[in-house]
Design brief:
By secondary structure, the chain is α+β, with helices and mostly antiparallel strands. It has five domains: 183 residues, Up-down Bundle (Multidrug efflux transporter AcrB transmembrane fold), CATH 1.20.1640.10; 87 residues, 2-Layer Sandwich (Alpha-Beta Plaits), CATH 3.30.70.1430; 174 residues, Multidrug efflux transporter AcrB TolC docking domain, DN and DC subdomains (2-Layer Sandwich), CATH 3.30.2090; 185 residues, Multidrug efflux transporter AcrB transmembrane fold (Up-down Bundle); 96 residues, Multidrug efflux transporter AcrB pore domain (Alpha-Beta Plaits), CATH 3.30.70. It has 38 helices and 31 strands. The protein starts with a helix and ends with a helix.
């Protein structure tokens, strides 16, 4: 089959070249259409349910809202986890599905169950809503609405009714969120003293305003042969209309709304705010990209639409972006392009130096862009985006290994032909013969490299989403290169070498290496036991060294910007929370390397992020690293920022990055590297255990940003209804509760329309009365028959207590999390120490449990998967080797290239102080395939020489020296192709570095030992096989 392909290609040259032209055109088209992003989207397949209940405390939210929704979702098909968080006024339930479940089908299932659960929810809540169809990579563009002459309320209205409406129609956007400003309402602010004066209740005012603000449909009438639509117009249009609504008549005298209340424009109760650089509050917008869309393309659409929108804005209003994810995308892709370009250049230089043939080097080098174009076409067809992992892990040296072997053999055969006498075959026949000679081992060798990537496709969860695109892309590129090697390379060779003349110069590199190699090989063949024993000792030593490396999940991608997750005491007011954010922003902005500091405190009115007013995300936009002057590393910068935080009383927090934080939160519900999840029933007990764990964390080397989930410390005013008293006065609990809710939270009684805009009409106490307990106590509650009015203070007990700030659930159980980031230490050893301390010092009550989450949870799951995947990869390699050489003994000899490769990979990680990670593990898998390729080529040639009648020793010596050039060439091009990746410090390089380091180190030792140990083992075992009795 392989021979037929080569022969067909040589005979049908025009057909092959037309195919190459089609490949170039298709590849260029695919490259222009390929979705581009910084990293693969590793967010879990989840649906979030947001339920706003402004008047409910966390424990009521848990009991009345979160729990019924959780129960409804628990038995959905194909779910992996249901978790929730209950905070003041907000419930967020997250349903995580298996990856094979379609996103929209999962949402449909959740929506159907949600309809069933609504019957169990208390009346008066906002409609539960599904979160947007977006992911941790969704926040692509954030901006500030600037207008010095406008109030925060006016800016907010412009954002909501002009900017958001026009952005919402952009293809690829899931949602546009607003932070900060004041949400405009028309408010009927009641004076309790005036209610007392006129003996009115809040219910009287609510009913009056509600009943006097509506239109009525009247169908239509026919008049003089025409049809007229009838509308009864009763909507209030101005504040004067509301003020003149009659509440009640007293002895023929009407009591108007204006007599008991002030009607004015006011702001809705805020649960959050946004501030910039410590100067002022701002109105900010955030665009959320639809899951699966092209980030770069959608961001460009947003920017184009923003330019159009600015032309329609009122005078003096500007849209100023402060975060664009395309900046990270561009930096990361530039890293990929630079590494690939430099790696490709290294490969081409080595090809020319070792092959010492310009035409041969050109043919092999041309396989690089052609195979890349083939990979881009396949990526486009399979919906794989171009990113740091899918494109960044391609090594052009490995890609062209097969072409190198083919070309090196062709040049050698042509060289021999020039010096041979009595040659009867044509140049074309010589070339075809050379291609056919190495075609089969070449295909088997490249196939082994391809097959070794297949187990990576079995990775699940986060690591699967991270590395599957890489495996697919490399396999696509290898398949393309293999097909080109069997078709295009023979055709190009037949054309460029048609005269049969090749350069007779020997590569200076090979010329330098060959004498020393000859002596080393002879020594090894004479002292087989010493050589093999030494190799075994080195391998065992490398395994011992491996245990000292430590481990982490995946090296953190440096996004360039920094995010601080700011925390304060739960009792803090929004005003004070904003003040502390502004203090921190001002201090951080004074650091020379900082461009902007934006804080998002709490949550917007339309809740899409379950933060409370004591929590802030502080986005710090940094200058490019080359412009840093006061510090050199990001770790030093975070230390400097920590010192700034320590100078501001009442705040604490941890450092992260915008995308990293969102990924951690959405994947594991934990925002840090390590999360100790404590499960149990009693909140006080959970808090005690969590604080004990935090104390242990603080004393472990490498701990940073240790914090306990703030589940307690929220001050509450609880108004407890006395049932005996309300029975005496004939009052219902619902009437008293309605009074409390309306007076303090406000009751929405309708809308006021201003053209296309619409604003809530709300009845509530005046701001001054809301904050005065005595005024609340003096509110009147009507009896059932409305024949008596009773003070609220006479039927209820007012108590100041401290309640829970938030309550988290996972798998139906209460949970509290103690979190920590890990710095200057590997994650695995840190958690091992932590686990030992917890097992030794924490005594869990019956019914309580501890689990570990965050990055460590991902590392643990991925490591378990690798323990299965690695043996599968090794087994597949051995099967392919056996099929190739048809001998278990010889397959085992070639297989020794793998432990020799492990030696170099481990040593390289140790020298560079890089812990073992999933990136390094994938590097080892890729390395195993390359490590055996040269062994296949060498051993196949030994067998050929022996079949021609040569002795085993002579065949080994001659075969090794003849195959020295292709072995050195393939090893050098494969390792040097990864060098830019291994040494790069650009954006995204930290993720590629372990993989590249493993491959380079492994190829060095694998090549050295293959050239020495493999010939030794081959001669040893082959000679023993020929001896009688052995």
């Amino acid at each position: 089959m392989i021979n037929k392909i080569i022969l067909f290609a040589v005979r049908q040259r025009m057909f092959v070249m037309l195919g190459v032209i089609a490949l170039i055109i298709g590849g260029i088209i695919a490259a222009n259409q390929l979705p581009i992003d910084a990293v693969p989207d590793i967010t879990t397949n989840q649906v979030q349910i947001f339920t706003v209940a402004p008047a409910l405390a966390p424990q009521e939210i848990e009991r009345l809202v979160s729990y019924p929704i959780e129960i409804a979702m628990q038995n959905l098909p194909d779910i992996e986890e249901v978790r929730s968080v209950s905070k003041f006024g907000l419930s967020v339930v997250t349903v995580i599905f298996k990856e094979n479940v379609d996103t929209y089908f999962g949402r449909q299932l959740v929506f159907e169950r949600l309809q069933e659960a609504k019957g169990d929810l208390p009346p008066g809540l906002a409609e539960p809503e599904l979160g947007p169809v977006t992911t941790g990579l969704g926040e692509i563009y954030q901006y500030e609405v600037v207008g010095e002459a406008y109030t925060p309320m006016e800016l907010r209205s412009i954002q909501d009714w002009i900017i958001t409406k026009q952005l919402a129609g952009i293809p690829g956007l899931a949602e546009v969120n607003t932070f900060g400003g004041e949400l405009k309402q028309y408010q009927v602010q009641i004076d309790p003293q005036k209610l007392l004066k006129f003996n009115l209740s809040l219910r009287d005012v609510i009913d009056a305003v509600s009943n006097n603000n509506a239109n009525a449909p009247g169908g239509y009438i026919e008049h003089k042969q025409e049809q007229y639509i009838v509308v009864g117009e009763g909507l209030a249009k101005t504040m004067s209309d509301i003020e003149n609504i009659i509440v009640k008549s007293s002895e023929g005298t009407p009591i108007f709304v204006r007599d008991v209340a002030e009607v004015k424009e006011g702001a809705a109760i805020r649960q959050g705010a946004a501030t910039l650089n410590g100067k002022t509050e701002i109105v900010a917008g955030m665009t959320m990209m639809l899951k699966g869309e092209n980030a770069r393309l959608v961001t460009e659409r947003v920017k184009e639409r923003v330019t159009e929108i600015e032309k329609t804005l009122p005078e003096g209003i500007r849209i100023v972006p402060f975060y664009e994810r395309t900046e990270l995308v561009e930096r990361t892709i530039q890293t990929v392009i630079r590494n690939l370009s430099e790696g490709g250049l290294f490969v081409i230089i080595i090809l020319f130096l070792l092959l010492m043939n310009l035409r041969g080097g050109f043919i092999v080098a041309s396989v690089i862009p052609l195979s890349m174009l083939f990979a881009l076409i396949m990526m486009k067809l399979n919906g794989i985006s171009g990113n740091l992992m899918s494109l960044g892990a391609i090594d052009f040296g490995i890609i062209v290994d097969g072409a190198v072997v083919l070309m090196e053999n062709a040049i050698r055969k042509l060289h021999e032909r020039q010096h041979a006498t009595g040659v009867t075959e044509s140049v074309q026949q010589t070339l075809i013969g050379s291609f056919l000679e190495v075609g089969r081992p070449l295909v088997f060798g490249v196939s082994i490299i391809i097959i070794v990537y297949l187990p990576i496709l079995t990775l699940q969860g986060t690591e699967g989403k991270m590395f599957k695109p890489m495996a697919y892309t490399v396999v696509f590129a290898l398949l393309g290169a293999l097909f080109l090697t069997l078709t295009y390379v023979p055709v190009a060779s037949a054309f460029l070498f048609r005269k049969g003349k090749v350069s007779e110069k020997e590569s200076p590199v090979i010329k330098f290496i060959k004498p020393g190699y000859h002596k080393t090989l002879l020594f090894a063949l004479k002292h087989k036991l010493i050589v093999v024993t030494s190799a075994a000792v080195i391998f065992i030593a490398s395994l011992l060294l491996f245990t000292k490396l430590g481990g982490e999940f995946i090296p953190t991608l440096d996004e360039g910007d920094i995010l601080i997750e700011l925390r304060r005491l739960p009792s803090i007011s929004l005003t004070e929370s904003i003040h502390t954010s502004q203090m921190l922003e001002a201090e951080l902005k004074s650091i020379p390397e900082v461009i902007n500091v934006v804080s998002r405190t709490g949550r917007p009115e339309i809740a899409t992020d379950p933060m409370s007013i004591y929590q802030s995300d502080v986005y710090i936009k940094m200058k490019p690293r080359e412009e840093w002057k006061t510090v050199e590393t990001k770790e030093e910068m975070m230390e400097k920022m920590s010192e700034v935080m320590n100078r501001i009383p009442g705040i604490g927090g941890g450092f992260s990055q915008p995308i990293e934080m969102r990924f951690n939160e959405l994947i594991a519900g934990v925002r840090s590297d390590v999360g100790v999840k404590i499960y149990g029933e009693d909140l006080d007990t959970l808090a005690r255990i969590a604080n004990d764990v935090a104390g242990l964390m603080q004393n472990i080397k490498g701990s940073a940003d240790v914090r306990v989930q703030q589940t307690e410390g929220l001050p509450q005013l609880r108004i407890v209804i006395d049932r005996n008293k309300i029975a005496r006065y004939g009052i219902n609990v619902s009437d008293a509760n309605l009074l409390i809710e309306t007076a303090l939270a406000g009751t929405n009684v309708g809308k006021i329309y201003e053209g296309e805009k619409q604003f809530d009409l709300v009845v509530k106490l005046s701001q001054q009365s809301r904050n005065d307990i005595e005024s609340i106590q003096n509110l009147l509650v009507p009896s059932v028959n409305n024949d008596a009015m009773v003070r609220l203070g006479d039927i209820a007990d007012f108590r100041m207590i401290e309640g829970p700030a938030e309550i988290s659930h996972s798998a139906g159980r209460r949970m509290i999390v103690t979190e920590s980031n890990v710095r200057e230490r590997d994650l695995q050893s840190y958690v091992e120490v932590l686990q030992a301390k917890i097992d030794e010092q924490i005594n869990l009550p019956v019914g309580y449990q501890i689990k570990y989450g965050g990055e460590f949870e991902n590392l643990e799951r991925a490591s378990e998967r690798l323990y299965i995947v690695l043996p599968i990869a090794l087994f597949l390699i051995f099967i392919m080797l056996f099929v190739s050489v048809n001998s278990i003994r010889q397959a085992l000899i070639i297989f020794t290239g793998i432990p020799f490769a492990v030696v170099g990979g481990v040593i390289a990680l140790w020298v560079r102080d890089i812990p073992f990670s999933i990136s390094a593990g994938v590097g080892f898998i890729a390395l195993f395939g390359v490590a055996v390729l040269n062994g296949v080529v060498m051993l196949t040639y030994y067998n050929t020489l022996i079949k021609e009648g040569m002795s085993i020793q002579n065949a080994v010596i001659k075969g090794s020296e003849i195959r020295l050039r292709p072995v050195i060439t393939t090893a050098l091009v494969a390792s040097l192709g990864f060098i830019p990746m291994a040494v790069s410090t650009s954006a995204g390089a930290e993720v590629q570095r372990p993989l590249a380091t493993v491959v380079i180190g492994g190829l060095i030792t694998s090549t050295l030992l293959t050239l020495v140990v493999l010939p030794t083992l081959f001669q040893w075992f082959e000679e023993r096989k020929t001896k009688p009795g052995l």
